[in-house]
Structures are given as C-alpha cells and as structure tokens.
Amino acid sequence: MIPSPLSRIDLSTLSSHLRVIPTTPAWPTVQTAIANLKSKGRNSASFENDVRCVQEYCRLLSRSSEMIAHSLICGLMAGQALKEADREQKILIGLDAIARAYRFSEKTDLEVAETLKKILQDQWKDDSLPSFQIKALDASLSAWKTTLEDTFKLVEKFPVHDLDYIQGVAWSSWLDRTELFFHARRLAEPQWIDILAVAAAVPPATLLKLDLREMTITDWSTALVEFFHRIPWFPDWCGFAALLALGFRPVNWLDLMKWRTRIAPVIATDDVKDWELERTYRRAEKWSRRNTAAPSRGVLVIKKTTGSLVDGWLPSPSIAAAAVTTDQALSFLDMPPPPPMLPSEKGIAFEMPLDREADALRIFDFWYKEMGNTTPPTYFAAEAIPAEVLLRIPRGHVVIAPKSVDDLFPAPTAR
Fold first, then answer.
1. Which residues contact 323 (CB under 8 A, 6 or more apart)?
2. Gap between the Cα atoms of 121 and 134, Å rounded
C-alpha cells in the first residue's frame, strides 16, 4: 500500500473534494435524510424535506452516471504507473491529479464532463467507449456496474510507462510551460504526461507546479537548491528559471554555467557538455530579456524548517528573494562562491525563533566575513521576539508579522 491523498472512493469524495459531481445536495445531508426515513418514516417532522432531498439526489446521480464512470476510468488510467497500489488507490490518486491539474473546482459540471470525455477519447485504445447511462428499470445498477468492471479490466491491460520514462518526458513538458511562463506568464494546458508525473509523484511534478504562476519563493528556492547541488536528473534550465523567477540573475550566464559544472561535473563527453552549455546559455539569455522585472535589492531568507511564514509568499517584482532552511544554507558554506549576481545590494533575514542559534551565527559570520556583505540583518517572526533572545544575536532590524518579502524592508524597527 502507498500513501493516498484521500481515504476512499465515495460520493462525498467525488463531490466535495474532487468536484466530479455537484456539491448540492451534499452527501452527508442526504445520508441524514436517508437515516431519518429509515428510522422514523412518516413520523419524522422532516419527512417531506427528507423525501425531497433523497429524490433530488437520485436524479443528480442518474444525470451524472456517465460522468462518474468516466472519472473513475480516467483516475485508473492516470494511476496505472503506481504498481504497488491497489485499484482503489490508483483511482483516487489518479483522479486527484486530474482534478487538480484541470482545476475542477473552478469548472462547471458541464466543463468537468467535457474534460473527462476528452481525456478518455485521447487516451482510449479502442475506437468506441461503452455507454454508462443508467437504464430506467435497472434499480440495482447491475448493468452499469458490470460495464464499469469490464472497462476497468481493459484499462488494467494497457501498457504502462515506467517511472523513468514518465520523468524524462515530463521534464520536456515542463520546459514548454516554462517557456510560456517567461514569454507572457500564460498557463499551458495540462498534458497527459503531466498528469502521470503528478499521480506518480516524480520530478518535475514534485518540484514544480503545473501553474508556475502559483510557485512561491520557497518552491522556486527548493528548485534552486537542487540546481546548486547538481542532482543528476536535474536539468540546468530549471535552475536558471528558478533564479530568474526569484528575481536574481548572474552578471554573466556563461560564468554561472561553468561554475556549476566545476562544483559538480557530470559524466559526459566534451562535445555533449559544450552543446548543452550553448543551448542552455541561449535559453537563459532569452528568458532574461523577457523577464522585465529588475529588483533593486535582494535578500537571502533563512526560514524555519516547519511552519514558516515564508512558505506562502509569492516572488516580488521589487525584491529578489531566496528562502532556505538552516541546513540548506549550511550545505553551501563549503562550496566556492558563485559568480557575481544581480541585484548587487543584498541582505540576509532570519526567521525567528531560530532552528539552531549556533548554526545561525555560523551562517551570519560567513555572510559578512567571507562574502563581504555589509547590510545589517533583519529578524522577523509571527509575534514579538523576546528581548533576551535579541540580546544573544547580532544587532539588526526587527519586523513582526510580515505578509510578504516586501514587508521585511519598509521602515522596520531598529533595535
């Protein structure tokens, strides 16, 4: 068994979470009405309302019978790469990936139905799809359930891509959506390979959101950390995209690429290295020209490992910012310093309380003594920082309850 975003398939899950069927009347309300009718019958004070509620829900299910079947089949197809999962888990995880990718919560019932039908038409291996309309005399739904079970068995015979294939092709798909993001901040339509990567929880889906406009400072910073540590499967273009999205850019892109290769060279022929460097360099230069934001100052945020205020902050057009944990920051101390980055004015901010005070002071010393920075540090927290804590750390500025990275700098209170 593997972890699932949901507990089980039921009518409540299909409506309230996945938004495959309408949310009204709500299934818990219908369950209450059914219980009243069973236990009290006509003696219930709410008898007429209960009958009306159950009848309305029956009509809703009848109208939605095909959409429900299509959603379950699509979910199973999307979850097939999860070989260790059982059928219900595959459906839940796959359908959850589809619902999030296509934003079912923002669509009408008709739009959801059309989306599911299109997925089936695009992915189905046969020319025709079975009908899932409920027949008037089939009160037990036996024909509907039989057709659905037969279809499940067909899906389970489809060839399944391995995770390495999904990951490799998904990176190409995310590169396309990154191009759109920097070109006009447009949202690319989800591709089937994207759905498979989200369902299987493999990169790039574990690092990058389908809608790159929703990427937070923490999200992009996580991608940047992977880039700096030269993870074997991590493409250079993604690290450069993270830098630009956060508001930073090297003075010279080629210097940055050579630095990254030097700190962790990959196994490849010289020809492949030169070809990759050239292609990545040209792509980064193009994105730089399209990315019009030019922050006047930058900040490195040392954030709490859990429950950080920063985790919900979006990148700012006026302040370049990267956010890392104490452990992530420490991992960079033994690396050769990267080439010069813009903006040239950079500060450091520590989220309080510090995870480990001694390590924070080590980062502080490196920032000022080794890197030569002079801007006083900023300390920020959700609530007032005790005076005795402030006495133990270097003098700086204090900001309470910031809601964005911009709030770290406008007229903070000095101590």
1. 217, 218, 221, 301, 302, 303, 308, 310, 313
2. 21
- Please state, in angstroms and rounded to a whole number, the distance separating the CA atoms of residues 170 and 97: 14
The sign of the CA dihedral 265, 226, 169, 282 is: negative
**86-to-79, 156, 208 alpha-carbon distances in Å:** 10, 11, 27
Q: How far is CA 271 from the centre of its chain?
A: 35
For residue 414, what pLDDT is reported? 45
- CA 323 to chain centroid: 17
The answer for residues whose C-beta is within 8 angstroms of residue 387's C-beta and 6 or more apart is none
Question: How, if at all, do strands 297-303 and 346-351 pair?
Answer: parallel
Distance CA 286, CA 280 (A): 10
Around Cβ 278, how many Cβ atoms within 10 Å? 12
Are residues 308 and 216 in contact, defined by beta-carbon separation less than 8 angstroms? Answer: no
Q: Which residue has the tokens 């934003």?
A: 103
What is the DSSP pairing of strand 397-400 with strand 341-342? unpaired
Q: Go through 241-254 and write b for each residue having 16 or more CB atoms within 10 A of its CB, e for each that does not.
A: bbbbbbbbbbeebe
pTM for the structure as a whole: 0.84
The single residue listed with the structure tokens 């690429």 is 257
Instruction: Give the C-alpha separation, 392 to 358, whole Å.
Output: 10
Antiparallel, parallel or unpaired: β 397-400 and 413-414: antiparallel
As a whole number of angstroms, the distance between CA 193 and CA 163 comes to 11
For residue 342, the surrounding DSSP H or E stretch is: strand 341-342
Q: Is the dihedral of CA 366, 371, 374, 379 positive or negative?
A: negative
Q: CB 147: neighbour CB atoms within 10 A?
A: 16
Give the model's pLDDT for residue 140. 60
Task: DSSP letter for 213, please.
Answer: G
Q: Is 295 exposed, middle or buried (0-12, 13-18, 19+ CB in 10 A)?
A: buried
Peptide bond into 343 cis (omega under 30): yes
Mean pLDDT for each 10-residue chunk of the chain (415 residues)? 56 84 85 88 84 88 86 94 91 95 91 92 74 59 84 89 93 92 78 95 94 95 86 81 92 82 56 64 82 80 95 94 94 84 90 90 87 86 92 91 90 46
Q: What pLDDT was estimated at residue 407?
A: 94
Q: How far apart are CA 106 and CA 116, in angstroms?
A: 15
